[in-house]
């Protein structure tokens, strides 16, 4: 990408006084002095009274000082140059802790560490006091966080938009083997990294009715009698690595529009005095409220519209402040929809342009379809959001009208090109008439976007040929692939400082910004001394993980065993249950004496089940019941341990990934869009065992067939076996080990006090068709695991393959991903502030 010349417009006085970030940094106090100053002047404490949390806050204030001028300069430079910007709309941003990441990206981490040591503190201990920002759940939110990091590092003018959740998803604890959801009050001690912007509040409307009004402009539709919520923006700086750019993440918090009723309060009507406030502020309290009830569904749609409406208003206000010509909108704005959650933005943009700014429909629609792009993250139709027409009609009546009009014009176009094909019209309609009349949000996103991308080569091909095959016929060329990536700043530089130090010693430090340079270590896989040093790094990371596991669970594990790790959202298609079947198989072999020379193994699970997903929560309980029995069986000893690591979050992942030896990526072929945990583990020296699903296909291409453990049915084979009439009983009856394992689960071997506890799991596998083909892949999975165990016994061979995995991860940098978005989809150029 070319770099824009700097604007020749004169700078404001504000910029002239700050000059630039380099000049500002010269005026900074030495970090030890800055720490003491903040302790005194920001916290009002002295050394003798300071707690570790106080030192975290002083460290955060000190690093924030280094961020602020760069942030202001970046923002004002974008404004003065009036450059094109990317707006990334995502319901999740799983950004994790910011202190260490910001210090590393800004280049002040060594000084901060030294400064804290001078006052008797350790950076690692101080950083532990920062709570993870509870702004996401899993891969979708972490991908968004990696992307905003890469956009800043690559000097892409960009803003992320999301929700400032009060409690986020939930804090998971395990009690009696079961998941318990607790509020994650991450804002209890304030968020030092955010800045409230009350001058940019927006009004978001709900309910009401639509009337037809005759004005001097003609007949118009007006949305009236609405209820309003105030969207309060909180800005979080996102520093790039090795650059002065600091981009913005704007998060919206819902506030009541209605003023506090003092008269009612003074009369003793305390409930009436705050009437409406709780309902309004509930919108931004919790990520993904349980939608099992109608009120839960309404709240989820409210959340989505709330942040989309506020963001759209904000984007357009910024545009019209500096651009008088609406036709230049696509030259200044690119909006990326991260999955279907923000898809209502298509209708909202039409509402704003047509109803608020009074553009003609055709002109507005042309602009809309030039500025939106949509990323799909799932192949499963049941995961594509739909909303009942009745709910839309009640909550967003004007937007339902707009969606009807978009759909009417779209279907007219389709009928002109494919006359008489009523089946096609029904399949692609934005309104699903076959399941109780529902709005298909993915269809709205596809119709309203100029580009739709999948997130791995296999996923994107399946989008074109299965899920969106009809749309691909209607819009040839609209669908493309952009394989996901991860930021090496967070997932190597920060998460694995020992490996970073080893790599830097041999190939220099440029790989943090240009991951392609990591390929230089490939020849070192043949160097015995480097392999030894590499093993020492892995051993230290495993010791760190073993200590954390002991702290969190009370389970002592053997750090010399293979650490077999599956950490991701708990879901049937991700097949944690297949892993459990293998664990029980190993247990049976040990108990029967068949595994005298078995490689010691610690199987580590982590992940959250959605609160309303009962079967996923049963899988968590089964894992813990199996763990309790195996971990306390004296015959097993250290040969096999099972651990469920509670409350999986970014800070936990930063310890789990570097400590992993084996990366479990075992979803049914054709179900996982991409995955990024597979990339993070491989970059940290873990070997992958997996199906040819998602990005596993491309990881295999990069690392080589001999350096990955691939097993199981392929996507075409999955389709074929289902079409021919899959019968799980054939596998159950045909494999004695498998039959024994399922019978143990079903007859209460792991739940003596409640023998039928896991009957639903057995029924899912045998009586309900084993939808995700666990039994069909079981034998191949067990065989692949035997190959894993054999290779692990040869430490030189294992470390050689692990080094090659690290060396060949260059493709999976989120910088490469963002470069493709910028060039091919957003058409935006780098701009150095």
UniProtKB/TrEMBL annotation:
Reaction catalysis annotation:
[(1->4)-alpha-D-glucosyl](n) + phosphate = [(1->4)-alpha-D-glucosyl](n-1) + alpha-D-glucose 1-phosphate
Glycosyltransferase: is it a keyword of this entry? Answer: yes
| Keyword set, alphabetical order | Carbohydrate metabolism, Glycosyltransferase, Pyridoxal phosphate, Transferase
Q: What is its EC number?
A: 2.4.1.1
Q: Which InterPro entries does the entry link to?
A: Glycg_phsphrylas, Glyco_trans_35, Pyridoxal_P_attach_site
**What cofactors does the UniProt entry give for this protein?**
pyridoxal 5'-phosphate
State any single GO MF term. 1,4-alpha-oligoglucan phosphorylase activity
Q: Return the similarity comment.
A: Belongs to the glycogen phosphorylase family.
Summarizing the function annotation, the protein's role is: Allosteric enzyme that catalyzes the rate-limiting step in glycogen catabolism, the phosphorolytic cleavage of glycogen to produce glucose-1-phosphate, and plays a central role in maintaining cellular and organismal glucose homeostasis.
Designated name of the protein: Alpha-1,4 glucan phosphorylase
């Amino acid at each position: 990408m070319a770099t824009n010349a700097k604007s020749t417009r004169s700078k404001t006085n504000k910029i002239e006084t700050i000059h630039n970030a380099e000049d500002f940094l010269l005026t900074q106090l030495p970090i030890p002095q800055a720490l003491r100053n903040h302790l005194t002047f920001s916290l009002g404490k002295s050394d003798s009274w300071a707690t570790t949390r106080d030192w975290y806050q002083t460290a955060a204030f000190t690093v924030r000082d280094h961020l602020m001028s760069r942030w202001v300069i970046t923002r004002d430079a974008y404004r003065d140059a009036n450059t094109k910007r990317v707006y990334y709309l995502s319901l999740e941003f799983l950004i994790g802790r910011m202190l260490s990441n910001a210090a590393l990206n800004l280049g002040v981490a060594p000084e901060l560490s030294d400064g804290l040591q001078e006052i008797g503190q350790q950076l690692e201990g101080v950083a532990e006091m920062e709570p993870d920002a509870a702004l996401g759940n899993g891969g979708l939110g972490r991908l968004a966080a990696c992307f905003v990091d890469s956009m800043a590092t690559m000097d892409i003018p960009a803003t992320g938009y999301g929700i400032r959740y009060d409690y986020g998803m939930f804090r998971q604890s395990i009690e009696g083997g079961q998941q318990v959801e607790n509020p994650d009050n991450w804002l209890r001690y304030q968020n030092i990294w955010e800045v409230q912007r009350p001058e940019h509040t927006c009004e978001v409307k709900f309910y009401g009715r639509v009337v037809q009004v005759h004005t001097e402009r003609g007949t118009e539709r007006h949305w009236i009698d609405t209820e309003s919520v105030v969207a309060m923006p909180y800005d979080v700086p996102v520093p790039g690595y090795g650059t002065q750019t600091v981009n913005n993440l704007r998060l919206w918090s819902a506030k009541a529009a209605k003023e506090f009723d003092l008269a009612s309060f003074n009369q003793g009507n305390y409930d009436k005095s705050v009437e409406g406030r709780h309902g309004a502020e509930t919108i931004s309290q919790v990520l993904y409220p349980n939608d099992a009830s109608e009120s839960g569904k309404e709240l989820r749609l409210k959340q989505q519209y709330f942040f989309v409406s506020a963001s759209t208003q904000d984007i357009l206000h910024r545009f019209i402040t500096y651009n008088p010509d609406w036709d230049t909108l696509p030259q200044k704005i690119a909006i990326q929809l991260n999955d279907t959650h923000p898809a209502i933005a298509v209708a909202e943009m039409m509402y704003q342009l047509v109803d608020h700014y009074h553009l003609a429909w055709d002109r507005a629609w042309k602009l809309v379809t030039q500025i939106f792009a949509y990323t799909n993250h799932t192949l499963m139709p049941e995961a594509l959001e739909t909303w009942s027409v009745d709910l839309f009609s009640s909550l967003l009546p004007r937007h339902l009208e707009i969606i009807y009009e978009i759909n009417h014009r779209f279907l007219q176009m389709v009928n002109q090109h494919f006359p008489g094909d009523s089946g096609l019209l029904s399949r692609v309609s934005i309104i699903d008439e076959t399941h109780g009349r529902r709005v298909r949000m993915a269809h709205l996103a596809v119709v309203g976007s100029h580009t739709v991308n999948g997130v791995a080569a296999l996923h994107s091909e399946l989008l074109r040929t299965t899920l969106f095959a009809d749309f691909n016929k209607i819009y040839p060329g609209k669908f493309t692939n952009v394989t996901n990536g991860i930021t090496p700043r967070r997932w190597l530089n920060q998460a694995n400082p020992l490996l970073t130090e080893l790599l830097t010693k041999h190939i220099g430090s440029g790989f943090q910004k240009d991951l392609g340079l990591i390929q230089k270590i490939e020849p070192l896989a043949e160097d015995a001394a480097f392999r030894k040093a590499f093993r020492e790094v892995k051993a230290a990371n495993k010791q760190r993980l073993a200590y954390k596991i002991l702290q969190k669970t009370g389970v002592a594990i053997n750090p010399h065993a293979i650490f077999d790790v599956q950490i991701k959202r708990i879901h049937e298609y991700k097949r944690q249950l297949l892993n459990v079947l293998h664990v029980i198989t190993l247990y049976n072999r040990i108990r029967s004496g068949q595994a005298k020379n078995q490689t010691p193994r610690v199987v580590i699970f982590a992940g959250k089940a959605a609160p309303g997903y009962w079967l996923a929560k049963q899988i968590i309980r089964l894992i813990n019941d199996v763990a309790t029995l195996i971990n306390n069986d004296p015959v097993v000893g250290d040969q096999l341990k099972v651990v469920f690591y509670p409350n999986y979050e970014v800070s936990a992942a930063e310890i789990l990934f570097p400590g992993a030896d084996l990366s479990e990526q075992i979803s049914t072929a054709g179900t996982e869009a991409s995955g990024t945990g597979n990339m993070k583990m491989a970059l940290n020296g873990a070997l992958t065992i997996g199906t040819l699903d998602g990005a596993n296909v491309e990881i295999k291409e990069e690392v080589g067939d001999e350096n990955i453990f691939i097993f199981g049915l392929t996507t075409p084979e999955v389709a074929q076996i289902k079409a021919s009439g899959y019968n799980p009983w054939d596998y159950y009856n045909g494999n004695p080990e498998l039959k024994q394992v399922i019978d143990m689960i079903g007859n209460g071997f792991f739940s003596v006090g409640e023998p039928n506890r896991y009957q639903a799991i057995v029924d899912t596998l045998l009586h309900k068709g084993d939808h995700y083909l666990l039994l069909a892949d079981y034998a191949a999975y067990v065989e692949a695991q035997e190959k894993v165990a054999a290779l692990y016994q040869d430490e030189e061979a294992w470390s050689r393959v692990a080094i090659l995995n690290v060396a060949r991860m260059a493709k999976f940098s989120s910088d490469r991903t963002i470069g493709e978005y910028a060039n091919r989809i957003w058409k935006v150029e780098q701009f150095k502030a």
